[in-house]
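Practice problem 4.
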């Protein structure tokens, strides 16, 4: 440790580069010394002109450093490259963290033989994925977050054969990320892509084999979710698509078919705060795993498809949707208790006005019947015949449905 006027600073003796900066302790002591000088001098009469700049200086001057086993540099405006250090020093570094410096694009990364974690944050000058070939045999975690990353070179990513966790969230990526090498394989199990400019889910069949978590939250240009791309994530258990401007409920059947054929596992798919207003019946009827949970909170749903005969399993979370509670949901009320493996949670009515704010579970069949008048008589008769195992053929409806035969599946046309 070196000193400047009794204040601890880090001088040029560091094996990881030359720095003449206040340490964390030095910042506090520099501020205290400045306050003492102001108080003891004539500047005290004009304290208000000095105290604010000195506060800023005392709190923010210099950058924070740490050398081993975690090498870190924070808020060092003159730092443009990764500190090389000498060979003995590099032998013990397991983690490198760079936050708010002036790092440039990295074509050559110094060799750190036991390095496992790289964490770049707010390094706005890095626009290209770094060449990390010198640490590819040990690197397990790579985070390049809150920056200006625009492109990922496929060969650079594929070289990271030991990588388990990739986080490139909150950047300016537009093109889908490349897949891992089909020959080298991958150990990647966690993929964080949130708040980028992707227009679709990446189609990465090799990487998808091992990924357990996929995060695409806040990708506001995510226009569509490809069923094929989703099915690539054969072992994934968590998908996050919150706040991504999705307006169409995606086809999850290819993914569901993979999971249905394996041992039941928890699958959490989160579409919170999107613009989904309609769910096609066939896109839910293929889900046969009771441990699936699909979160559709805060979307634009007002109704649900009739799943009475679909043998659907799993949970739908419909919190804060504007549901219209009429005979279109009568199937769900009649089926309560009979579809134990299909759960609709947090369903609250928005319309009609006299049911607004009421939990669906508190409504009676009569509350829903009253909204559909004559056409419901036929529908209720058919539902009752199903649940009493007394199938009634050629049920005669009243009014405008008077001649309709609702045996078989024709009854669904009444809603």
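Answer key:
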């Amino acid at each position: 440790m070196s000193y400047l006027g009794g204040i601890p600073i880090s001088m040029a003796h560091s094996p990881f580069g030359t720095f003449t900066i206040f340490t964390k302790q030095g910042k506090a002591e520099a501020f205290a010394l400045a306050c003492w000088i102001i108080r003891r001098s004539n500047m005290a009469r004009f304290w208000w002109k000095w105290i604010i700049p000195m506060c800023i200086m005392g709190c923010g001057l210099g950058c924070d450093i740490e050398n081993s086993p975690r090498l870190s540099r924070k808020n060092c405006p003159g730092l443009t490259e990764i500190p090389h250090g000498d060979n003995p020093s590099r032998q013990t570094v397991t983690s490198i963290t760079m936050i708010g410096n002036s790092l440039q694009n990295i074509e050559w990364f110094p060799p750190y033989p036991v390095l496992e974690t790289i964490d770049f944050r707010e390094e706005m000058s890095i626009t290209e994925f770094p060449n990390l070939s010198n640490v590819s045999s040990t690197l397990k975690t790579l985070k390049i977050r809150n920056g200006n990353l625009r492109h990922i070179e496929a060969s650079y990513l594929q070289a990271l054969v030991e990588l388990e966790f990739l986080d490139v969230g909150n950047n300016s990526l537009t093109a889908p990320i490349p897949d891992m090498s089909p020959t080298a394989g991958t150990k990647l199990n966690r993929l964080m892509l949130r708040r980028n400019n992707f227009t679709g889910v990446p189609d990465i069949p090799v990487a998808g084999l091992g990924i357990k978590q996929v995060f695409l939250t806040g990708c506001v240009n995510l226009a569509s979710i490809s069923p094929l791309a989703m099915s690539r994530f054969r072992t994934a258990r968590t998908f996050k698509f919150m706040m991504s401007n999705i307006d169409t409920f995606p086809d999850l059947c290819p993914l569901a078919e993979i999971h249905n054929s394996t041992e039941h596992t928890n699958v959490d798919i989160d579409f919170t705060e999107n613009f989904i207003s309609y769910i096609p019946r066939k896109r839910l009827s293929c889900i046969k795993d009771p441990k699936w949970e699909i979160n559709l909170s805060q979307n634009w749903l007002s109704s649900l498809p009739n799943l009475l005969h679909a043998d659907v399993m799993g949970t739908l979370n419909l919190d804060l949707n504007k549901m219209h509670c009429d005979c279109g949901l009568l199937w769900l009320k009649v089926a309560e208790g009979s579809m134990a493996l299909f759960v609709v949670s947090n369903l609250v009515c928005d319309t009609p006005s006299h049911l607004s704010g009421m939990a669906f579970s508190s409504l009676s069949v009569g509350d829903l019947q009253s909204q559909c008048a004559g056409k419901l008589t036929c529908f209720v008769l058919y539902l009752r015949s199903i649940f009493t195992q007394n199938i009634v053929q050629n049920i005669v409806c009243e009014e405008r449905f008077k001649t309709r035969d609702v045996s078989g599946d024709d009854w669904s046309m009444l809603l």
